[in-house]
Amino acid sequence: RKLALKYHPDKNPDNPEAAEKFKEINSAHATLTDLAKRNIYDKYGSLGLYVAEQFGEENVNTYFMLSSWWAKGLFAVCGLLTGCYFCCCLCCCFNCCCGKCKPKAPEGEEHEFCVSPEDLEEQIKTDMERDGETPIVLQPTNATEKTQLIGDSHRSYCTDS
């Protein structure tokens, strides 16, 4: 309290260093008065307080446990032994991605993947003629404030029909 009063910004208006010192004193006081923060600081230091600020006080122990060298090693060994990295190795290391290992088409059948726009248009027309439907060739006009939203031109503000 004495240090806080000594470095208070109201008592030192022209000293920016006093304001910074006052903030540090308040932060230290908040840490010392809160039992959870004090325990975290005693165990992990200022990094522990930063982790508590980022991830929550209840997750500090978990963070430091998972960031230890033995936890990282255990994760890597378990991943390799259980085959969790199988997909990555298969796709990247053995060139099985992007269809390189897919089965070949039977002899005599060619599959054309690129279709020209003219052929596609012709196919759409023949499909429409066969189905008996006519394609929509006109776009709707833009709506304005004078466009009628009700089709029977009977204006009503009631919700029941």
UniProtKB/TrEMBL annotation:
Record has Phosphoprotein as a keyword: yes
UniProt-listed PROSITE patterns: DNAJ_1, DNAJ_2
Residue spans crossing the bilayer: 69-94
Keyword tags: Chaperone, Lipoprotein, Membrane, Palmitate, Phosphoprotein, Transmembrane, Transmembrane helix
SUPFAM superfamilies named in the record: Chaperone J-domain (SSF46565)
SMART domains linked to this entry: DnaJ
Membrane topology label: Lipid-anchor
Subcellular location: Membrane
Domain (J) ranges: 1-45
Keyword Lipoprotein included in the entry's annotation: yes
UniProt-listed InterPro entries: DnaJ_C_subfamily_member5, DnaJ_domain, DnaJ_domain_CS, J_dom_sf
Chief place of localization: membrane
GO cellular component, one term: membrane
Assembly mode: Interacts with the chaperone complex consisting of HSC70 and SGTA.
Identification of the protein by name: DnaJ homolog subfamily C member 5B
Taxonomic placement: Eukaryota, Metazoa, Chordata, Craniata, Vertebrata
